[in-house]
Design brief:
This protein is an alpha+beta fold. The chain folds into two domains: 94 residues, Phosphorylase Kinase, domain 1 (2-Layer Sandwich), CATH 3.30.200; 191 residues, Aminoglycoside phosphotransferase (APH), C-terminal lobe (Aminoglycoside 3'-phosphotransferase, Chain: A, domain 2, Alpha-Beta Complex), CATH 3.90.1200. The chain is 42% helix and 16% strand. It has nine helices and nine strands. A hairpin with a 2-residue loop joins strand 2 and strand 3. Helix 3 runs antiparallel to helix 6, helix 4 runs parallel beside helix 8 and helix 8 runs antiparallel to helix 9. The protein binds adenosine-5'-diphosphate and the ligand N[C@@H](CCOP(=O)(O)O)C(=O)O. The ligand N[C@@H](CCOP(=O)(O)O)C(=O)O binds next to helix 8. This is Homoserine kinase. It is an enzyme of class 2 (transferase). InterPro entries: Aminoglycoside_PTrfase, Homoserine_kinase_II, Kinase-like_dom_sf, Pseudomonas-type_ThrB. One of its GO terms (biological process) is threonine biosynthetic process.
Length: 305
């Protein structure tokens, strides 16, 4: 259950006075999600999603909300932020940053079809192209410098073979950076639970709160690693091919990007192996943490090497 901050109907009615989206009808907590408190809001003008941010701070929100507006205006399937009467997108509720976005149709899936992988790849490529004229820049907070630094805390806690793997893989990635490859705005966390699907079509990408600047092939690799990963933590070749084909139907990869793809997939494994290991070994007191299996990405990494 991911409604950590309770919001009463009366609090919502007060907040709605700052928006021109009609009168309050109903507010319903959303069970899915891990990090933030999300609600479906129904007003006399339509349906919206209210997010109360549990970790992000108010000054960090404008980048993500302005990015979502930029992308949604360019036909990328993602929630459009709702502007307040004063023009801002970000509000405050229960002392925490909050926002309203458009409510999308569709549901996520844990067992995607090849057609859904194709659509997701195509929409990711569309997002990469649409971000080209977004004027703001955000460094990736969870890339090489981050996994290099965080691995120092983890190495003493891992068994010998995992420690050797993590150490050698980080050294390998440092020697094979992606900085020469085409890049721009990336989602950086396009797992299956961050895509709403309506049958085979993408209804919307959600959870843009790791979006940043990076190489496009790294973003594609993160998506492939999750969308094509089977329960044995190996990739399903048909799903991987479908996502890649969908991506290339919109934005063909250069020969340099194609040559780098398997390294980008290894980088994607390190990114999420490290974050899941940190959640496991250093659960934050008072922070809401749902620990996902770190070994999934270790095992996939071993398979990709
Ligand atoms: N714009 C939206 N339209 C429809 N449903 C949404 C929207 N945003 C979020 N949701 C629903 O809320 C759930 C949690 O959202 P998510 O962004 O993953 O939360 P968290 O940041 O807490 O991980 C999603 O799985 C989806 O069901
Ligand atoms: N999709 C990720 C979770 C988001 O990353 P984190 O760095 O906030 O843990 C996963 O499945 O591990």
């Amino acid at each position: 259950m991911s409604v950590y901050t309770p919001v009463s109907d009366d609090e919502m009615r007060v907040l709605l006075q700052d928006y021109a989206i009609g009168k309050f009808i109903a507010l319903q907590g959303i069970a899915q999600g891990i990090t933030n408190s999300n609600y479906f809001l129904t007003t006399t003008q339509g349906r919206y999603v209210l997010t109360v941010f549990e970790v992000l701070q108010a000054h960090e929100l404008p980048f993500f909300l302005e990015l979502k507006q930029h992308l949604s205006q360019r036909g990328v399937a993602c929630p459009a932020p709702i502007a307040r009467r004063d023009g801002r997108f970000n509000s405050t509720l229960a002392g925490k940053p909050a926002c309203l976005v458009s409510c999308l149709a569709g549901r996520d899936t844990s067992l995607p079809t090849a057609a859904q992988c194709f659509s997701t790849g195509a929409m990711l490529a569309k997002m990469h192209l649409a971000g080209a004229d977004f004027p703001q820049h955000m460094a990736n907070p969870r890339h090489a410098a981050w996994w290099q630094a965080e691995s120092q805390r983890l190495l003493p806690l891992l068994d010998e073979s995992d420690a050797a793997l993590l150490h050698s893989e980080i050294a390998f990635l440092a020697a094979h950076p992606d900085s020469h490859l085409p890049g721009g705005i990336i989602h950086a966390d396009l797992f299956k639970d961050n895509v709403l699907l309506a049958d085979d079509a993408v209804a919307g990408f959600i959870d843009f709160y790791y979006a940043c600047n990076g190489s496009f092939v790294y973003d594609l690799a993160i998506a492939i690693n999750d969308w094509a990963r089977q329960s044995n933590n190996q990739l399903n070749p048909a799903l991987q091919a479908a996502l890649l084909e969908g991506y290339q139907s919109v934005r063909p990869l250069s020969s340099d990007e194609l040559a780098y793809l398997s390294i980008a997939q290894r980088a994607g494994c390190i990114r999420f192996w490290v974050s899941r290991l940190l959640d496991y070994h250093f659960p934050q007191a008072g922070e809401i943490t749902f620990i996902k299996d770190p070994n999934a990405f270790r095992d996939l990494l071993l398979d990709l090497q």
